[in-house]
Amino acid sequence: MALTLAGLAAERPLGLRVLTGDDLLDRPVGWVHPTELTDPQAFLEGGELLLTTGLALDEETSPAYVRRLVDAGVAGLGFGVGLSHEAVPRSLVTTASEVGLPVLEVPRETPFIAITRAVSRAVAADEYATTVRIGRAQQELTRTAAGKGGPAGVLRKLAKLVDGWVLLFDRTTVTESAPPSARAYGASLREKLERLRTGTRAFSLDGQEVVLQTLDTSARRVLAVGTAEPLDTAGRHIVNTAVSVLSLALEQDRAQAAAREALRTGLVDLLVGGQAELALRVLAATGAEPPEPPWSVLVFLGPPAARRKLLGAVEGELFAARAGASVVAFGPASVAEPVAEAALRIGGLHGGVAGPVAPRDFAAGLQQAELAARAAEAEDKILVSAAEHTGRGLLALIDPAVARIHGDHLLGPLRRHDETGRGDLVESLRCWLEHHGHWDTAAARLGVHRHTLRNRITKAQDLLGRDLDAPGVRAELWVALQT
Q1: Where are the alpha helices (DSSP H) in 53-89?
Q2: What's the pTM value of the predicted model, to 2 decimals?
Q3: Are strands 173-178 and 350-357 parallel, antiparallel or unpaired?
Q4: Positive or negative CA dihedral for 162, 166, 170, 175?
Q5: Cross-strand partners of 225
Q6: Which of 110, 168, 381, 440 could crosslink 376 through cysteines, CB 3.0-4.6 Å?
Q7: How far is CA 123 from the centre of its chain?
Q8: pLDDT tens digits for the chain (483 residues)?
Q9: What contacts 428, CB < 8 A, 6 or more positions away?
């Protein structure tokens, strides 16, 4: 901790006496500067304890002198008595009281060099303490990042080291916080984050000092540090160290995540290719526990961002991998419910589930789950089972959009004919096929004579250019009529 005027005045061997500014003695002393110049502003940086014997000062010149020192930002004035002056000029003391400048009377027995040495020792001790604090903090942060704590552990350690709170953002979204309650500051920082490109920005928030710092890996990643007081030199170094180790830890996490994702996608490829035994050996070799067969196989479709969130939500809970434009997961039957719940929370996802299947039948299960997922997407459902989907018949296996286009093309001549009002060929054909070509039954259902129905079917056959006695043609027309 830096030496203050109060601390200096408390050193009995110096014999200093406080004349003014009793309520301002908490000011830190950056250095000591003895001078007899009446205007030393050009040689000051601010924060110094200025020492003088007042050789060029008197009752008239002292007030202006004091004001110049205040403008220069000095911490205080040490006035040596017993040489040029037996006592500190009254006008100097009066003015100093008015403008808020602490004045310490220095007895003749105390050489200025003794004060300089006292301040020098304190500055050296403070710098040493700062260096030690920075060194220890760097070691702690590095050990945390290299251990199992990862980025979250680094944030917790940093919050303790600076006695504040810490947030890690991905763009404007909080990904980690220490302590957990610090997440409440996230919304208040959103506007600042949107304006921040790269580098550092410091500002006040609810009486606290907040520092935003982009990480080296990406301007998307931002570290926010909040403290009750502005960070000192050691605090700034500690934050910089945290930024460095966080950047490395996040980059390492990213690389490991990419490797895990590639491995899992490769395992799905092995399973699809019929190499189930090899896939399970590789899975076990990576330290993962292969799920006990038989498996439920799930496929989820949706936007890339939603698929990434789903992978993150279920990672560690079950086997999940990216496969083309979908997320594939498999495990015991119980996995379907939690995955569907995660998809519902994320939004924009549609899934299909098949199984149970043995590992050797994974490819078939995956294909069934994909078809069910497309059906869920078409019906705007979270999850459709393959059993439910295939139970709807052959038409359910055809893409609705494709089926509709095909139906419009095939039945177009009949629909255009009916629009002229010259007959009801489409409905007549539907009823005739529904009753397996039985003329009397279909005609009775339509409420027309069977010869009228025969004429309509003959007309339909001519317009379609198809042989309606052929079973394949009848089946194709029946499917078209259902779209």
Answers
A1: 62-72
A2: 0.47
A3: unpaired
A4: positive
A5: 166, 211
A6: 381
A7: 41
A8: 678 999 999 999 999 999 999 999 999 998 999 999 999 998 999 999 999 999 999 999 999 999 999 999 999 999 999 999 999 999 999 999 999 999 999 999 999 999 999 999 988 888 888 788 888 888 888 888 777 777 888 899 999 999 999 999 888 888 889 999 999 998 899 888 888 878 888 899 888 999 998 886 555 788 899 999 888 888 888 888 888 888 777 766 666 666 676 777 777 788 888 887 887 787 777 767 777 888 888 899 999 888 888 887 877 667 888 888 888 888 887 777 888 888 888 999 998 888 788 888 888 888 888 888 888 888 888 888 887 766 445 555 566 666 677 778 888 888 888 888 777 888 888 888 887 788 888 888 888 888 888 989 888 888 888 888 887 788 788 778 876
A9: 442, 446, 448, 453, 456, 457, 460
What is the number of alpha carbons within 13 Å of residue 337 lying toward its C-beta?
A: 3
For residue 468, the 8-state DSSP code is T
Q: What is the DSSP string of 119-160?
A: HHHHHHHHHHHHHHHHHHHHHHHHHHHHTT-HHHHHHHHHHH
Q: How far apart are the C-alpha atoms of 159 and 185, rounded to whole Å?
A: 14
CA distances from 190 to 28, 202, 429 (A): 35, 14, 64
239, exposed or middle or buried, with CB in 10 Å at 0-12, 13-18, 19+? buried
Q: Which two tokens mark 187? A: 């919304």
Do the beta carbons of residue 322 and residue 343 sit within 8 Å?
A: no
CA 423, distance to chain mean position in Å, is: 64
Place of tokens 């502003």: 41
Q: What sign has the CA pseudo-torsion 340, 346, 350, 355?
A: negative
| Whole-number Cα distances in Å, 13 to 81, 87, 118 | 16, 20, 10
Answer for the pair 106, 80: CB distance below 8 angstroms, yes or no.
yes
Using DSSP, state whether 163 is helix, strand or coil. coil
DSSP assignment of 374-438 equals HHHHHHT-SEEEHHHHHTT-GGGGS-HHHHHHHHHHHHHHHHHHHHTTS--HHHHHHHHHHTTT-
The single residue listed with the structure tokens 């926010």 is 224
How far apart CA 49 and CA 104 sit, in angstroms, is 10
CA distance 442 to 431: 6
